[in-house]
Amino acid sequence: MKLYIRKFLVLVAVAALTLQPVLAQAQVAVGNANKIVSGVRGVLQSNTRTLVLKDEVYSNENVNTDADSAGRFVFLDDTLLSIGASSSVTLDKFIFDADASKSQVAISMSKGVMRFVSGKLPKNLYSIRTPTALIGIRGTILVITVALNGLTTVSVIEGVATVSAAGATTTVNAGFSTSVSTGAPPAPPSGTPPAPPQVQAMQTALGPDPGIATTGQASTGLGGLSTGAVLGGVALAAAIGAAIAAASDDNNNASVSTNESTTSTSTSTATN
Predict the structure, then answer these.
(1) What is the pLDDT of residues 142-200, one digit of tens each?
(2) pLDDT of 230 over the 70 cut
(3) Which residue from 84, 78, 154, 91 is spatially nearest to 118, judged by alpha carbons?
(4) Contact of 32 with 77, CB cutoff 8 Å
(5) Sign of the alpha-carbon torsion through 220, 222, 224, 227
(6) Rounded distance, CA 64 to CA 23, Å?
(7) What is the mean pLDDT of residues 5-15?
(8) Closest to 160 measured CA to CA, from 147, 178, 146, 145
(9) Total-model pTM
(10) Phi, psi of 123 (to 5 degrees)
(11) Least confident span in 128-142, 176-190, 209-223
(12) How many CB atoms neighbour CB 81 within 10 A?
């Protein structure tokens, strides 16, 4: 009976190992947490987790922050995304291809504050969507705030951005800002006012951007698998090996027992 139980465990372990790559490939890491302050959560496929330093993040993951928290994330193309307090940002689409023209970075923000520094991809491959505007990146650094009523404010720190809403598009240069309310076109760009309190709080909490984006931390898996998936596979393989070895020992013991019984029977027959 013990032998059959071990064989069953081996079959279950092999089946789990077979499914492991399929599950992992559905969640290929696109970046990682460079800095986390207080409560920052990631929601992916209805599963919620508390993010900590160096945690990997994934396409379609929603990142939420508490009233006193903030987070900075570094992506595979060296994009930097800083998220302030009481914010909700979704990493809609992150595609990184050897052919840059096939790559794409798309983010949506439903509320709060964020600071976006574009990475190494062609600038026209980046886009940010809010409840009231679509923002195209034609430069480097943007600060975006979204109020609870959807009012979006886009401030360009370096480079150029385009802001589209209600069938109109406005180009915003460095040092200027525009705002968009529900159902209205972007307001004419104006000089950027002093940073509002939520932006100041985010910058104070996270400090200056890292000098060199640490994208290597985001690709610590093998073949696109996350570190957790790889380590899980190694542990599972070890468990399988142990189960197989145990099953083999049982087979050997059973064989020895059978041989001893046969020998004993043969000896008894010869004696008679």
Answers:
(1) 999 999 999 999 999 999 999 999 999 999 999 999 999 999 999 999 998 888 999 99
(2) no
(3) 78
(4) no
(5) negative
(6) 24
(7) 47
(8) 178
(9) 0.69
(10) -60, -30
(11) 209-223
(12) 23
Residue 221 above 90 pLDDT? no
Q: How many helices (H) and strands (E) does the chain have?
A: 3, 17
Q: What one-character DSSP code corresponds to residue 76?
A: T
Tokens of 62: 């929603």
The label of the residue with tokens 């609870």 reads: 148
**CA–CA distance, 272 with 244 (Å, rounded to integer):** 42
Q: Of the candidates 80, 88, 92, 85, which has an alpha carbon nearest to the alpha carbon of residue 32? A: 80
Query: What would the two tokens of residue 29 be?
Result: 């890491």
Q: What is the domain partition of the chain in residue ranges?
A: 1-27+225-272, 29-218
Whole-number CA gyration radius for the chain: 28
Residue entry with tokens 């951007």: 209
Residue type for position 193: P
Tokens representing residue 38 in the block: 């207080």
The CA dihedral of 178, 180, 186, 187, to the nearest 10 degrees, is: -60
What is the architecture, at CATH level 2, of domain 29-218?
Answer: Sandwich (2.60)
Question: If we measure between CA atoms, which residue out of 118, 112, 98 comes closest to residue 148?
Answer: 112
Residue 26: the pLDDT is: 56
pLDDT band at 208 (very low <50, low <70, confident <90, very high): very high
Whether the predicted pLDDT of 219 surpasses 60? no
